[in-house]
Amino acid sequence: MGLRSALSEKEYESPPGKRLKGENGWTESSNPLYNFDSFSTALEDLKNVLYSHKERGINAVVSVAGWAQFSEGYREVVEPYRQEIQNKEIVIIFADTADKQLMYLKDGLAHTNVGQNPFEMGKQAIMTLYKLANKKSVKEIQYIPMTYCNPQNYQTCTKK
Fold first, then answer.
1. Where are the annotated coiled coils located (predicted)?
2. Which domains does the chain have, with CATH numbers?
3. What tens-digit pLDDT sequence spans the chain (160 residues)?
4. Exposed, middle or buried by CB within 10 Å (0-12, 13-18, 19+), for 137?
5. Using an 8 Å Cβ cutoff, are 101 and 114 in contact?
6. DSSP labels, the chain
7. What is d(CA 139, CA 143) in angstroms, rounded to the nearest whole number?
8. Of 53, 102, 57, 50, nearest to 78 (Cα)?
């Protein structure tokens, strides 16, 4: 729902939001692919999408976690599409910014990785608990900065 909200610039009242059908130029070619935290399933799904992306009119893949990139076979699956990736005929975006994933950016096998900030998440959780324990007001929603990595900044994007 968060991804759909960001792409469409709309807020949805209940998950998973509405499938995108042209909002802000974004259209979902299929329902989301669920892998139930299986790295191998995620990699197989990515392989199938890449294989058929031209005939299905798919020009972007957005993964809300790094499952496929954490699989041992990611490089072998994506490598045949390196030129299409470099030409942005297919754009590949993943969540998470582990060192292994940053090497895929360096090697031109993805476009962007968006990472969470677990340190700041923990800090804000403790600060919120402290305020609540001391009967102070807290914000209903706490926004935590994200890390945005790409082939140009992969060496420094996760450094403070």
1. none
2. 33-116 (3.40.50)
3. 989 999 999 998 898 888 999 999 999 988 889 999 999 999 999 999 999 999 999 999 999 999 999 999 999 999 999 999 999 999 999 999 999 999 999 999 999 999 998 889 999 999 999 999 999 999 998 889 999 999 999 999 998 6
4. exposed
5. no
6. -HHHHHHHT---SSTT-PPPEEETTEE-SSSPPP-TT-HHHHHHHHHHHHHHHHHHT--EEEESS-HHHHSTTHHHHHGGGHHHHHTTSSEEEEE---HHHHHHHHTTS-SEEEE--HHHHHHHHHHHHHHHHTT----SS-----EEE-TTTTTTTT--
7. 10
8. 50
For tokens 């058929």, the residue is 52
